């Protein structure tokens, strides 16, 4: 049974926060020259990291590895106050590429802590975003990663509890956990607007739509990308076969046995050229139709960090 149809999800790939973070590194390199140091991976995609490293970005695990007085960039996933204090101690010139939607969660955590609420963060242990958010309000926050943990988490006052979520979670999975928390804590306080980012939700909506028609779904994204892994899980939940791949070279021809229609999407940190390589792969195998399926239109953009804008303005004024 030959492959006949390839469906492309829209939206897919880079979100506004990732576009902004990559532009931050590119602009910093233009302004200050190499090397520019980046704490952690600016976004979770190995091709993006390789590309920026080739231009002169140096990726480090911690600021201890950055020379005193150097230019350093915080990744899109955000950092804790402890990291910020370390930067001051080393006299680093900091550019903050934290996604504004992650910053929103940090601000919510601080607001709830000031109100003396117990905070439950729904997210994945060890993820850079979770580490940064929990570091904002130590002593006020607990991490819950699944419904079973939500059933057993304890708080000092069950009537004074607030919930936050990691921005890149699966929407359906997060809702299951939050439903448990609502049942256990009927006065549970939730943010005024959803923490799970618009791009995460939109890409999951799109992949659900495609998975209904496709025999197999391929998700472009690195394994350490939380939102990419969720896309694969969402596709699988519809009953489709689904695989997470970094690029076309990882496609196993055996997966295509009995497949007439394949759907392709990409996590929020995966470049579009990787998608097109996969499309080319299927065209070379005789795919007769390649069609984009629009689920949601995205028009979100984010401004560059204020410190970068100030530097550009200062240099323009000195000309």
How would you sum up this structure, described in words?
The protein is an alpha/beta fold and 319 residues long. It has three domains: 5-14 and 198-294, Cobalt-precorrin-4 Transmethylase, domain 1 (3-Layer(aba) Sandwich); 16-99 and 302-317, 3-Layer(aba) Sandwich (Rossmann fold), CATH 3.40.50; 101-184, 4-hydroxy-3-methylbut-2-enyl diphosphate reductase, catalytic domain (Cobalt-precorrin-4 Transmethylase, domain 1). It is 41% helix and 18% strand. It has eleven helices and twelve strands. The strands form three sheets. A five-stranded parallel β-sheet has the order 10-9-11-1-12, with helices on both faces. β4, α3 and β5 (93-96) form a beta-alpha-beta unit. The longest helix has 17 residues, at 16-32. The chain is flat and about 65 Å long.
List the helices and strands and how they pair.
Blueprint: E1 5-10, H1 16-32, E2 36-39, H2 46-55, E3 57-60, E4 71-74, H3 81-89, E5 93-96, H4 100-114, E6 118-122, H5 128-136, E7 141-144, H6 147-152, E8 161-165, H7 171-184, H8 198-211, E9 216-220, H9 226-237, E10 241-245, E11 261-266, H10 272-284, E12 289-294, H11 306-317
Parallel strand pairs: 1-11, 1-12, 2-3, 2-4, 4-5, 6-7, 6-8, 9-10, 9-11
Percent of residues in helical segments?
40-55%
Structural class: alpha/beta
CATH topology of the largest domain: Cobalt-precorrin-4 Transmethylase, domain 1
- The general outline is flat
**Any idea how many domains?**
3
The CATH level-2 architecture of the largest domain is identified as 3-Layer(aba) Sandwich
At the first level of CATH, the class of the largest domain is: Alpha Beta
Give the end-to-end Cα distance, rounded to a whole number of Å: 65 Å
Cα-based radius of gyration, to the nearest Å: 21 Å
Total DSSP E strands: 12
- What is the overall pLDDT average? 96
**Spatial arrangement of strands, main beta sheet:** 10-9-11-1-12
- CATH homologous group name of the largest domain: 4-hydroxy-3-methylbut-2-enyl diphosphate reductase, catalytic domain
Largest sheet: 5 strands, parallel
SSE run: EHEHEEHEHEHEHEHHEHEEHEH
Task: Provide the low-confidence segments as ranges.
Answer: none
Share of β-strand residues: 15-25%
Number of helices: 11
């Amino acid at each position: 049974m030959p492959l006949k149809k390839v469906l492309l999800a829209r939206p897919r790939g880079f979100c506004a926060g990732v576009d902004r973070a990559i532009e931050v590194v590119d602009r910093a390199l233009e302004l200050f020259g190499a090397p520019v140091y980046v704490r952690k991976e600016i976004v979770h995609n190995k091709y993006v990291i390789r590309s920026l490293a080739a231009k002169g970005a140096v990726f480090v695990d911690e600021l201890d590895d950055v020379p005193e007085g150097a230019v350093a960039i915080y990744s899109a996933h955000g950092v804790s106050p402890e990291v910020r204090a370390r930067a001051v101690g080393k006299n680093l010139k900091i550019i903050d590429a934290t996604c504004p939607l992650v910053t929103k969660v940090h601000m919510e955590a601080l607001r709830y802590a000031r109100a003396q609420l117990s905070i439950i963060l729904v997210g994945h242990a060890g993820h850079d975003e979770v580490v940064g958010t929990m570091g904002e309000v130590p002593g006020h926050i607990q991490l819950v990663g699944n419904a079973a943990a939500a059933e057993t988490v304890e708080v000092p006052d069950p009537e004074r509890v607030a919930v936050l979520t990691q921005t890149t979670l699966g929407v359906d999975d997060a809702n299951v956990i939050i439903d448990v928390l609502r049942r256990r804590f009927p006065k549970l306080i939730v943010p005024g607007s959803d923490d799970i980012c618009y791009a995460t939700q939109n890409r999951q909506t799109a992949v659900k739509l495609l998975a209904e028609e496709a025999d197999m779904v391929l998700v472009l994204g690195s394994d350490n990308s939380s939102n990419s892994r969720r896309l694969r899980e969402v596709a699988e939940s519809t009953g489709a076969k689904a695989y997470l791949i970094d690029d076309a070279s990882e496609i196993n021809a055996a997966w295509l046995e009995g497949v007439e229609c394949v759907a392709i999407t990409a996590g929020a940190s995966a470049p579009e050229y990787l998608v097109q390589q996969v499309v080319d792969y299927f065209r070379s195998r005789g795919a007769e139709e390649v069609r984009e399926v629009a689920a949601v239109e995205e028009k979100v953009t984010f401004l560059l960090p204020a410190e970068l804008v100030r530097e550009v303005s200062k240099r323009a004024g000195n000309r």
